[in-house]
Automatic annotation (TrEMBL):
InterPro entries assigned to the protein according to its UniProt record, in alphabetical order: Allrgn_V5/Tpx1_CS (IPR018244), CAP_dom (IPR014044), CAP_sf (IPR035940), CRISP-related (IPR001283)
PANTHER family registered for this protein in UniProt: CYSTEINE-RICH SECRETORY PROTEIN-RELATED
Keywords from the named record: Disulfide bond, Membrane, Plant defense, Signal, Transmembrane, Transmembrane helix
Protein name: SCP domain-containing protein
Single GO BP term: defense response to other organism
Pfam families registered for this protein in UniProt: CAP
Domain annotation SCP: ranges: 27-159
UniProt organism field: Canavalia gladiata (Sword bean)
Coiled coil stretches, renumbered: none
């Protein structure tokens, strides 16, 4: 009888772990931090860590963007910010990939975006003085996804290089 209870308990715990893994599906803080840090390691800047305070700010703003409009929050004056949206589901890793894929558009020597491309999402993601990240995600009324990540301290200071 005792063995049955233990086995049942173990199955319940395993079930919860599997369900929570599926629910996060490339949106876990660890996955998002890992995606950022892969890009950061390429340019020799310190790793980011997940910050619950920053994540709460990001999630609060994401909850206001159920319209899926790409409007920046302004970071509350404290944070840098990257935002992304899709017409369907998008994972946190997908959003980070969109931002770091701007790397070819950044020219370190002129410290500017080149070829008419965007690069400021990339530079924020790899900003050398940024140490903490937190992200929020919401499914939009249209069925799309809005994801925002905030960075502490912020980056993208005019005239300064990201690394």
């Amino acid at each position: 009888m005792g063995l049955c209870k233990v086995s049942f308990y173990v199955l319940c715990v395993l079930g919860l772990v599997i369900v929570s893994d599926i629910a996060y599906g490339q949106n876990s803080p660890a996955d998002i931090v890992k995606a950022h840090n892969a890009a950061r390691s390429q340019v020799g800047v310190p790793n980011l860590v997940w910050d619950e305070r920053v994540a709460a700010f990001a999630q609060n703003y994401a909850n206001q963007r159920k319209d899926c409009r790409l409007i920046h929050s302004g970071g509350g004056g404290r944070y840098g910010e990257n935002i992304a949206m899709s017409t369907g589901d998008m994972s946190g890793i997908d959003a980070v990939k969109l931002w770091v894929d701007e790397k070819p558009n950044y020219d370190y020597y002129s410290n500017s975006c080149i070829n008419g491309g965007m690069c400021l999402h990339y530079t924020q993601a790899v900003w050398k003085n940024t140490l903490r990240v937190g992200c929020g995600k919401v499914r939009c009324a249209s069925g799309g996804t809005f994801i925002g990540c905030n960075y502490d301290p912020p980056g993208n200071y005019i005239g300064q290089r990201p690394y």
